[in-house]
Amino acid sequence: MNKEDHPVELESAARGLLPNMDSHKRFVTDDNGYEPVNEIAQRRNKVGRKSQLITLVTEIEEVIGNIEDGRISYAYFSKWKMIEVAALVFTALTLGVSVLEYEIEFNNVNDSLQYKMLWIISICTLILVAITVMRYRALLEYQKSRNLIDHREGLYSTGLYKTMMKEILLTIPHPNPFLMGITFKMKTAYKDIEAEHTVNEVLNILQLGRVVIIFRVLLIFSHFFSSSSHRVCSMYGVEPSYFFVIKSMMRSKPFQLVACAFGISIVIFGYAMRICERAVSHTDPTYGLANFQNTLWNVIVTMTTVGYGDYSPVTNFGRLVAFLICMWGVFIVSLMVVTLENFLQMNSAELRTYSVIERIQMKRELRNLAQRIIRQVIRMLIKTIKRKTLSISDAAELKRRIKDFKVLKREYRASLDESTSLGEQMRRQFEYLKDEIKDLIAQQRELKRVGTNLIEYVKAQELKDIQSKSSDS
Asked: Which tens digits make up the pLDDT trace of 35-74?
């Protein structure tokens, strides 16, 4: 076979399309002559190794790109933290100005000053909405720097826009100048009085929900919410959320956290109750809940589920706030109970110390009880030697003390099992079984002895009866 006779077959063989042909028959033609296919295969192998090397380098670059740069992530975290601080400042500013504006509105002091304050509140609210958007964008960049999400992700694709919209809805309600002077009346359960409320009063109450933002920002300054803490959470598959910070603080500083939540709740709910119930004082200046001290007292007795009944809300808004106080009070009291219970629980070192002290005390009681048993036995032996009859009470007392001794001994051994290994516990359990078996054997021997004595006694009586009968005959 030559190339003139089979040009197509030679070309196909060179391309590797005829694998059944012998390797020495596979040639390709060019201007210089013939070239074996194995050299082509070598060049192909070189090209394959180069492509594999390129693929490996690409994978290494991807792995290196997925490694978090601590400096970059810390910079984004600091930026996010600064935006949170700005949100805290503007939230506190709007709440403070709202308190002053409400007092001016209720007392009709200065309408122009009230109008200016309402504009300040509205402008600060708009700034707070913008800060909220910036905060979530900074959070998105921080997550990208930690390679938690893809760099092409956005607020919509990650689902962060849902939480952002909820926070914006929480931020938007505020007293504003466009609703200044608009009032409405509602009937109350107090002397058939109609309470006159303003729309800005209701918005003032809704604005108190921004306290959640203040509490959230304060949690950021905890060491449980630092950038390094986030990396540790990622190592153990824990989501570094605000709930994780609250749980951690409940373990490290439970009393401080519960006391802070209780104190802030009293002030916030007391102020909300005062706004709701103060409208009644327009008609009746002597109404009790128009006083801030009385509303604080009402919140305290309501949250602690005491409810003296000396003060109670009469407006619909006030009763709604009282309902929220009841629900929140149950939660706070539950936290107090759990905190106290955890505080009274012993740690491992305290439990070991307690067990050792208890075992020492049990050992003393065992020793004292054994001494009483020995003294009781000695007294009974002395009575037997002096041929005095033993009373039933002495025997019953001895049995009772022996029973108490066995029970206390078992408790002592059980306390030893709590601080020993599984093998040691099994060994002691076998010892318990051996002791029980020994007691059973001793009881059987005693029963056997008593039975033998009884049989001998019966036989002796029968023999006496026979002898008496024979003597009579």
From this structure: 455 565 666 666 566 666 666 655 554 544 556 677 888 8
Query: Residue 422 has what pLDDT?
Result: 56
The parts of the chain modelled with pLDDT lower than 70 are: 1-68, 387-391, 417-426, 428-429, 472-473
Query: What are the tokens at 3?
Result: 């190339």
pTM across the whole model: 0.67
Q: Are 332 and 261 in contact (CB under 8 A)?
A: yes
Cα distance between residue 33 and residue 31, in whole Å: 6
Query: Measured at the alpha carbon of residue 139, what is the angle toward residues 257 and 210, in degrees to the nearest 5?
Result: 45
Dump pLDDT digits (tens) for 97-138.
Answer: 999 999 998 888 788 999 999 999 999 999 999 999 999 999
